[in-house]
Amino acid sequence: MKSFPGNVFVSDYPAERYGVKMKKVIRLICGAAAIIVLLNADIKWPVIMAEAEGTEDAAQGDTAAFGESVESGEDPGEPADGGRVFGNSVGNGEDPGEPADGGRDTGNSMGSGEDPGEPADGGRESENSVGSGEDPGESADGSGESRGSAESGGASGEPADGPEIAGEASDSWKRTSGNMDEETAQWVEEAGKNLAQIAAERDIMALVYLSDTYPVRTSPSEESTTAITVFSGQTVNILDVYVNDEPEVWYYVKLEYNGGLVYGYVQQAYLACSDTRFLEWEGEYGLNFSAAAYTVDAADAQTFPDIEQFPESYRPALASLKAKHPNWTFVKMNTTLDWEVSVSKELQGGKSLVYKTLPDWAKNGLYDTGNWYYASEAALKMYMDPRNSLSENAIFQFEQLTYNEAYHTLEAVNTFLKNTFMNDSSPAPGTNTTYANLFWTIGREEGRQVSPFHLAARVLQEQGAGTSPLISGTYPGYEGYYNYFNVGASGTTNAQVIRSGLEYARNHGWSSVEASIRGGADFISANYIRRGQDTLYLQKFNVNPNGFYAPYTHQYMQNISAPTTEASSIKRLYEGAGALDSTFVFKIPVYENMPADPCGVPAVSTEVVLPIPEGYGNPVVWLDGVAYQGEIRNGSLVAVAADGNARTAVLYKYNEAGVPTGMYVWELRHNGVVYTATPLPGLENLLTYHGFSIRITGKTGIRFKTGISAELRGRLTSGGVDGYTLKEYGTLVTSNANLGQYPMIKGGEKIVSGLSYGIDGNGTLQDVVFETVDGRYRFTSVLVGLPVEQYKTEFAFRGYAVLEKGGVQTTVYGPAVARSIYTLAGQLIGQGTYPAGSDADVFLRKLITDADALTP
How many other CB atoms are found less than 10 A from the CB of residue 426? Predict the structure, then answer.
């Protein structure tokens, strides 16, 4: 082994570290026809050579002292044209070439639920629950990132001529104009009083539709001022009615917008409602003026106004559903949120999980002890893309979750629960009635009005086989308490989740099965359904742009497949009740900048997922030496490789000054579908950076130092480490300007490599060590013979090591670092490293003076 004398050198490497009237019919047809028409309508490189013994460096400016020995003279072996590259390494003759960017999102539930294809103990749903039962609901206080709770009125909400109390008309309140004949006016007045009575007893929820945006008016007239402009899909509560002389129906409504209450008027034609009592009221008083269902286009094809509001990629599936179920209404929920941004937000903070039975491409690292995994981007996109759920089995995740007496029957709930732990073979524990009757009775109670189908399906999803301690009533310390919806259950272990869920139950007096189900139903009604998260989809993916809670917060569940699973259960319930052709209204989100086609199962995933080691905060992932911008998700760094061929992933650690202080290596394997990353702790800090220095004897040059542990090298050259043995190591160099165009990898274009250890082209073993410090062999490269024109040019260096495992060679790279000799000289002078007037000081000042003379 050749060794070079250690120069006195101080390095920048630290010691370690989102009925109809005819004219109305004509208007609708003409409008549709109009829509149809519109729609159709060079650097010269100096010598780098094998370093001779006895040369001297001026240390790098931020650290160095002068070298111990000085030996001037020409370097041997330098070609006449000065065109080569390496020192302390044997150059390969390559020319490096020319230079050429919550509320509630906790979750920790595990247990039994039923996802399609999952075992009985599989489905994970709510965000903070475990236990053998499935998922919970939300934090104990039901908190989310609330936008506020102020109530607005007058110009900003309640019109001056509206009812004094929501749902109640004052003596001065008029439901018609003064021009209407007395008989008709009395008829409208009677209808209005009856509607107000219904509204006083229940929330009559409707959706704004048939327009991307709609101006809610302060008075029942298109000429009146706008109280607020809302997006399609906005939920409103109908309070009263006004009929003008045309006649045209306006509804007086209230709505929650950005955390505040707003009152105003909406035309009947722009509201979709499936409330049975309301629809019966409209039919009884003949006020269903907006009943036109479709128009006919120039090709004699039916076109439906509701479907025409959707992007083209939604329409075929919706048209197919409409053909089977003409009573169904589809409301475009205009989220105004960017698709990719929404996906990114839902991938953060443990919001999105998948169960262990899903395929490997759907997983991005383990979430808990083995049942739940972080969802991959591909999996999230597939479940989150509404277009993938426009089928009978999945569409009900977009249904509003309010009670409808026409089809939410006791018989249907009984049938649904027949083969579950909640069947009617015996009363629910501590009661004299069945689970089905509890869900049905609690759901239909005035003031709550929650779909009993939803309640039954949610509990089944949460509790699965019914063996969770959260509903046993016998858990030590919490005897007699039950939490059927897993509300408030959180933690990272089963025990933590069970205790937190039962503590919530005790704090809320859920000391019986009935109390727990009623309490859970109230929780869902008050905190989700009445807060704009009134569909299964919105409970999982809160993309309501102006809801009570900010988008992407206050999400009931983490399991991304839960809305689809529950939707399938609810479809079976309606099917069992013979109610599939009822007047359902589906609120379906649409995002900005969605892909042209629905996001499906990826043929191949090239995501690389790396758990972030302590101290590693830089988001760049280096795959086989090439930089890929990573995204931090749930404590891991995720990067998308160009293909499935990468063999290694490396992260570098940097100090506050940006100096590399460590590296961590993973072995990558792609099985044709997904990457697996295996950490290689034995190769941590395989190659370390030890700074630059300026060569001041012989040819002027800039030196780069890389270190390798002597002990680690010994093991790599003998028995091996993590299955790898060492074949060679050395240094790569290129101009820093080239880094933006060419990967700095061994054998890469415009990259020069020099060998410090290994068999050279002549079959000779090279083993060049510049110095040994703190148990690390330091090998170097020196860029020499720099012309003054290149003093200010930054050159990039990085160490590399070739390892072998199972007969396959893999190259691992150290961090790339770039400096110019001009910058280094300025640092040395600025730090006063050398005495004024000394040879080294004179040398450095002349270097700077010469460079500045060329580039004033």
Answer: 8
Query: Which parts of 561-633 fold into alpha helices (H)?
Result: 562-576
DSSP three-state, residue 167? coil
Residue environment code for 161-175, b if the CB has 16+ CB neighbours within 10 A, otherwise e: ebbeebbebeeebbb
Return d(Cα 75, Cα 118) in angstroms, integer.
71
Q: Which of 383, 355, 728, 743 is nearest to 541 (CA)?
A: 383
Please give the helix or strand (H or E) that residue 494 lies within, else none.
Answer: helix 494-507
Q: Cα torsion for 355, 361, 365, 370, to the nearest 10°?
A: 30
By CB atoms closer than 10 A (0-12, 13-18, 19+), residue 150 is exposed
| Cα(745)–Cα(753) distance, integer angstroms | 9
CA distance 272 to 330: 9
Rounded CA-CA distance 658/652 in Å is 11
pLDDT of residue 833: 86
Amino acid, res. 8: V
Amino acid in the structure at residue 550: A
Pairing of strands 636-640, 607-611: antiparallel
DSSP-assigned beta bridge partners for residue 778 = 707, 771
Q: How far apart are CA 827 and CA 174, in angstroms?
A: 84
Nearest to 407 by CA among 201, 583, 202, 199: 583
Contact 465, 421 (CB under 8 A): yes
Q: Chain-wide mean pLDDT for the chain?
A: 81
Sheet with 271-272: strands ordered across: 226-231, 213-217, 260-267, 249-257, 235-243, 205-208, 271-272
Domains contained in the chain, CATH given: 46-99+685-854 (no CATH), 154-303 (2.30.30.40), 607-679 (no CATH)
| 711-737 residue pLDDT tens | 999 999 999 999 999 999 999 999 988
Q: 40 — phi, psi (to 5°)?
A: -90, -35
Tokens of 322: 């409409």
3-state secondary structure (DSSP) of residue 778: strand
CA neighbor of 530 nearest in space, from 776, 336, 256: 256
Residue 731: count other Cβ atoms within 10 Å of its Cβ: 29
Which residues on neighbouring strands pair with residue 666, listed in sequence order? 649, 679
- The residue assigned the tokens 């003064």 is 178
Q: How confident is the model at residue 94 (pLDDT cuts 50, 70, 90)?
A: very low
Question: Per residue in 558-598, pLDDT tens?
Answer: 999 999 999 999 999 888 888 899 889 999 999 999 999 99
Structure tokens at 637: 């760094």
Q: Which two tokens stand for residue 363?
A: 């997983």
Check: CB of residue 295 under 8 Å from CB of residue 37. no
Q: Has residue 91 got a pLDDT over 90? A: no
Is residue 661 within 8 A of residue 707, CB to CB? The reply is no
Q: What is the pTM of this model?
A: 0.69
Contact call for residues 365 and 609 (beta carbons, < 8 A): yes
- 442, 455 contact by CB (below 8 A): yes
Three-state DSSP class for residue 803: strand
Q: DSSP code of 739?
A: G
What's the token pair of residue 635? 């404590």
Neighbours of 356 (CB within 10 A): 17
Report the alpha-carbon distance of residue 209 to residue 236 in Å, rounded: 11
396, 569 Cβ separation under 8 angstroms: no
Q: Phi and psi (nearest 5°) for 55?
A: -80, 160
- Token output for 98: 């020319």
Give the model confidence (pLDDT) of 39-88 as tens digits. Answer: 333 433 433 333 434 455 665 533 333 232 223 333 333 333 333 333 33
> What would you report as the CA-atom Rg of the chain, rounded to the nearest whole angstrom?
36
**H or E segment to which residue 194 belongs:** helix 182-201
Q: Regarding beta strands 752-759 and 765-769, do their DSSP bridges make them parallel or antiparallel, or are they unpaired?
A: antiparallel
Largest CA distance in the chain: 117
Smallest CA-to-CA distance from 495 within 132, 104, 135, 114 is with 132
* d(C-alpha 282, C-alpha 260), whole Å: 29
